[in-house]
Specification:
The complex is a heterodimer. Chain A contains 16 helices and 13 strands. By secondary structure, chain A is of the alpha/beta class. Helix content of chain A is 41%, strand content 16%. The longest helix of chain A is centred in the first third of the chain and has 22 residues. By secondary structure, chain B is of the alpha+beta class. The radius of gyration of chain B is 22 Å and the shape is globular. The N terminus of chain B is likely disordered. The chains are: A alpha/beta, B alpha+beta. Chains A and B meet through α1, α2, α3 and α15 of A and α9 and β13 of B.
Chain lengths: 390, 360
């Protein structure tokens, strides 16, 4: 298939892998520990597992799967709000598919649907607007979710609703923004990261400039990457090359899609409709300042938080979850106390087990079980040794 | 076999069949009275047209002697069909209800012979739609050499079901010597499929119209017993067959790996997919290995018979694009591993629930 197969060429992969291994050898000598590179975006996590990229990389590289899965980082209280909205008679609650399984404190949207709530999966917010046109006697609420990637399409939908004077449509806005979150991770004292793969589709909207602080203030290389497997290997090579050359820069591997200054039309729409919240709660990471957006006052008639009464109760993450440590790269998913036992994709406790883009779910479903089990045994043995004879 | 041969000699002379003169099915058609009789006559008896059914007894009476002559074991299976939309490119719920149950018999090595047909109709369904679906069932069954010998009709209130549910039970006979089983696969066995995967799942998702994608995808809905007959003759050592319906080949391969305690290694580069299905999955973030099929099977065969099986499959109209996609191994018992085109590998696990399109 054109524009797909070119980016999955195994021969080119081998060439890149050789280069990567060469750089790793040189860098490993300097660091004396594996290099930790975080892919910020859940789309990258998904691609890394789908193509088995981790199984191809030298042991000296450890990929840390970052917070860029909007479904995973959604706090339980917000899911409860979704369920409450969906259960209002006359409401048709519309959502992207992978959000329906996220557990709330009592139930998920899927469970609410089974109990009679009108929950419908849509592929675009415009489909939700269509439902509003077709069902004038119903209230259509769209569960607006995601980073800057999905923000423009929801903003445009609101603008369209206004232009057409559609009144029975609103957004439950849970859009989040990536920069403050990356900053929060960089500020974490446990941080052990050597570099970043930057989120390709977020950058398509916001451009490269917002990442400058990562290179300048925190002195970490970051390479904005595409989502095909060769993109990812290429971007990894670029990060290693920067480390090798002693450079810390923002580089763009995904230049076929990402323009340095982003997309003006998309940014305009976002700026018109949304403004920053003072803070937003993330699963696993806690409250992060200025990390979420809400609707501006001028568009509050499309704001479900204004149109309906929403309780917005804050619910703490389960104590046993170590999502935060996994997100920051302090531990690997399978090193979490509840991974695969209390927390599975079927019964997710923590955020990262929820969506296929979540690091824990990805390891559970696609991961190399032998490697995981042998590492897990290794850890247990070490613990036993440290504990000494009983 | 012709059903007419089974009909008791005392069968009454053919009676005049009733007809329905209203456009939509109402609760009256489920009331057990004349209206129901007319609906059954007009829609089902007329379409299925066989004397066993025409006797209007409460049960079909089948000759044991005929069954015994064809094999040493009876195979029985049942399946309920619920699908939205009722008609889709490549088929309809009626064709599906016949092919699906025939396939469930055939993958056990059975020759399918008889089917039952029970329908639950939501009031308000167009009688003409029902006629067309019944005639689609009849056409499919006739082409497959299978008779629909008994049935049941219920009508329920609006909202109590989605337009039309169909249940078919199938009876078939397994020839002596055929031994297939999900727990019989051994390391080294070749894993074969009979063609392009995921067409049905993609066609149905597309036909629902929610995704607003324009494609010409058609369901692969087909009865596989003819193909299976040819395969079993060419490769009598075949250890396992299963049609890869809901959950796709990923689910079937996991079932085999677990039941036979073998590992299964498959290769992305060998897995046959239509370009449209690949593109459909790329756009929606779906994995074609989990998409439903209605005319595709997974086969495990000892390595020395793999070539023969594959050649026989490719000679059959329903196996033109057959492929060897991998092997059973002694490593990682219970696990399915996909070697990606890119050169890496990953575990292919069972799905937790439904496959859902990804956000971005």
């Amino acid at each position: 298939m054109k524009y797909i197969d070119e980016f999955r060429d195994p021969e080119k992969a081998q060439t890149l892998l050789k280069e990567i291994a060469g750089l790793c050898d040189k860098l490993h000598g300097r660091k004396g520990r594996p290099l930790k590179i975080m892919e910020v975006c859940g789309g990258h996590t998904h691609a890394i597992f789908r193509y088995g990229i981790e199984t191809m990389l030298p042991d000296e590289i450890e990929l840390v799967h970052g917070p860029g899965c909007p479904v995973c980082v959604l706090p339980m209280g917000r899911v409860d709000d979704c369920v409450a909205l969906a259960e209002i008679p006359k409401v048709i609650f519309t959502t992207f598919g992978d959000a329906v399984r996220v557990p709330g404190s009592k139930k998920s949207l899927l469970q609410a649907k089974s109990e009679g709530a009108d929950v419908r999966m849509v592929y675009s917010p415009l489909d939700a607007l269509n439902l509003a046109r077709e069902n004038p006697d119903k209230e259509i609420v769209f569960f607006a979710l995601g980073f800057e990637t999905t923000m423009p399409s929801t903003a445009m939908t609101v603008l369209r609703a206004e232009a057409e004077s559609i009144k029975n449509f609103s957004l439950f806005c849970n859009h989040i923004t990536i920069i403050p979150t990356v900053k929060a991770i960089l500020d974490s004292p446990e941080l052990q990261l050597d570099g970043f793969l930057g989120p390709g589709h977020v950058s398509m909207v916001i451009g490269n400039a917002p990442y400058e602080f990562i290179a300048k203030q925190y002195e970490k290389p970051i390479v904005v990457a595409g989502f095909e497997p060769l993109d990812i290997l290429h971007a990894l090579w670029m990060v290693l090359k920067q480390l090798h050359d002693g450079r810390c820069e923002v580089e763009n591997q995904y230049a076929r899609v990402v323009a340095t200054h982003g997309n003006d039309v998309a940014l305009d729409a976002i700026g018109k409709v949304f403004e920053l919240r003072e803070f937003f709660e993330w699963r696993g990471l806690g409250s992060i300042d200025h990390s979420g957006v809400r609707m501006r006052k001028s568009y509050e008639k499309y704001d479900a938080e204004k149109k309906f009464t929403i309780r917005s109760v804050k619910i703490a993450d389960p104590k046993s979850c170590q999502c935060g440590e996994v997100l920051k790269g302090v531990i690997k998913p399978w090193e979490c106390k509840v991974f695969g036992s209390a927390c599975t994709p079927n019964t997710p406790l923590g955020a990262l087990m929820v969506s296929s883009e979540g690091a824990c779910a990805a390891y559970y479903q696609f991961g190399d079980s032998l490697k995981i089990h042998s590492r897990a045994a290794e850890i247990k043995n070490t613990e036993a040794m440290l504990a000494g004879p009983h | 076999m012709n059903v007419a041969e089974l009909t008791p000699p005392s069968a009454p002379a053919q009676r005049q069949l009733g007809t329905v003169n209203v456009p939509k099915v109402t609760m009256a058609h489920g009331g057990g009275g004349k209206a129901m009789r007319d609906l059954i006559d007009d829609v089902f008896i007329r379409a299925f047209d066989n004397k066993t059914l025409a006797t209007m007894e409460d049960q079909a009476r089948l000759s044991l002697v005929d069954l015994v002559a064809q094999g040493d074991r009876l195979a029985v299976t049942t399946d309920s069909y619920v699908i939205h939309p009722l008609r889709f490119p490549g088929g309809d719920i009626g064709k599906l209800a016949i092919c699906g149950t025939i396939n469930d018999l055939a993958v056990g090595g059975a020759k399918p012979l008889y089917l039952s047909c029970a329908v639950v109709i939501e009031e308000g369904l167009d009688v003409q739609t029902l006629r067309e679906i019944a005639s689609s069932m009849a056409r499919t069954a006739t082409a497959a050499g299978v008779s629909i010998v008994t049935g049941d009709t219920k009508v329920v209130d609006k909202g109590a079901c989605d337009k039309l549910f169909i249940n078919t039970t199938g009876i078939g006979v397994i020839r002596k010597g055929i031994e297939l089983g999900v727990n019989r696969v051994r390391p080294g066995d070749a894993i074969l499929v009979n063609g392009l995967l995921g067409d049905h799942g993609a066609a149905i998702l597309n036909a629902r119209g929610d995704m607003s994608l324009s494609t010409h995808l058609e369901s692969d809905c087909a009865a596989l017993h003819g193909l299976i007959e040819v395969m079993l003759r060419a490769a009598p050592g075949i250890r396992f067959l299963r049609d890869a319906t809901r959950g796709g080949i990923a689910t079937v391969l996991n079932e085999v790996a677990e039941a036979s305690q073998v590992g299964i290694d498959i290769h992305e580069s060998l897995t046959p997919l239509r370009d449209e299905v690949r593109a459909f999955c790329e756009i929606l973030g779906l994995d074609p290995l989990y998409l439903a099929n209605e005319g595709k099977l997974v086969c495990a065969v000892p390595p020395d018979q793999a070539e023969g099986a594959l050649a026989a499959m490719r000679n059959h109209p329903l196996g033109r694009n057959s492929a060897l996609i991998g092997h059973a191994t002694g490593d990682r018992p219970g696990r399915v591993v996909m070697h990606t085109v890119f050169g890496g590998h990953r575990i292919v696990d069972m799905l937790v629930g439904e496959q859902l399109p990804r956000i971005c």
